[in-house]
Write a structure and sequence with these properties.
Blueprint (H helix, E strand, L loop, with lengths): L10 E4 L2 E13 L4 E6 L4 H4 L5 E5 L10 E10 L2 E6 L5 H5 L5 E7 L12 H4 L3 E4 L2 E11 L4 E7 L2 E6 L5 E5 L4 E4 L11 H4 L31
Parallel strand pairs: 8-13
Antiparallel strand pairs: 1-2, 2-3, 2-7, 3-6, 4-5, 4-7, 5-6, 8-9, 9-10, 10-11, 12-13
């Protein structure tokens, strides 16, 4: 899904450090500079604390291009996160930040102890294996409301793979592989007579392996209806 604000999943900083996407500013809230947030992290209590500084991903034409943003306070209204930021005093300033993506510095050596949970950078670059044969490489991840989609680069083009147990049967970071058991038609075209019976939707059922820009949710914890 193309977007003027989407460029790369990873911004290199140094040998052991990168930046991870942890949120997106959606729209202004009220008149005092507050901005509604879409969070891409399972740990907002650690990532979104007063004084946290975010690198902004915005178009070159934005007045915020090349700048950082410091969080003053995170509040919750009706279950939705709203941020107040240093240097954003009113609604006009807040509106100028709409759709900006927030990135934070992150040490690649940091690990998670959660079962079936990964950082984005651990998944991108994995070889995609089907029936013991490499068929492609994970190139990016889309974070959707229902579940996440893996972008898999293959010899015949890019394939979007729902990141659910029904299709992704195993992830082996040490081996550098991600094993898939896809339904017919996901990685190849079917004859017209078979295509109607083998439609694949991003809403495919199954235990989820949802990931976000910071840390993946544990399998079974996420509910696409939330």
């Amino acid at each position: 899904m193309a977007s003027a604000f989407v460029s790369t999943w990873l911004i290199p900083i140094s040998k052991n450090e990168t930046q991870l996407r942890v949120g997106r500013l959606t729209k202004a809230h009220g008149l005092k500079g507050a901005i509604k947030l879409e969070l891409f992290t399972d740990d907002p209590g650690r990532r979104f604390v007063p004084g946290a500084v975010f690198t902004l991903q915005v178009p070159p034409s934005s007045p915020w291009h090349g700048k950082t943003l410091e969080l003053a306070e995170l509040r919750w209204y009706n279950g939705h996160p709203v941020g107040f930021f240093v240097g954003v005093p009113d609604r006009t300033a807040a509106e100028s930040l709409a759709k900006a993506i927030l990135w934070i510095d992150h040490d690649l050596d940091e690990k998670t102890n959660e079962q079936d949970a990964w950082f984005d950078h651990q998944l991108v670059g994995l070889a995609v294996i089907r029936d013991g044969v490499r068929i492609g490489t994970v190139s990016a991840i889309d974070h959707l409301s229902a579940q996440d989609l893996l972008h898999v680069s293959t010899d015949s083009g890019e394939v979007l793979v729902p990141f659910v147990k029904a299709i992704v049967s195993a992830v082996d970071i040490d081996a550098g592989t991600l094993t898939v058991t896809p339904p017919p038609g996901l990685f190849e075209e079917l004859p017209a007579s078979e295509a109607d019976d083998a439609q694949v939707s991003p809403g495919v059922a199954g235990d989820e392996l949802a990931v976000d820009g910071d840390l993946a949710a544990t399998v079974g914890d996420a509910d696409p209806t939330d």
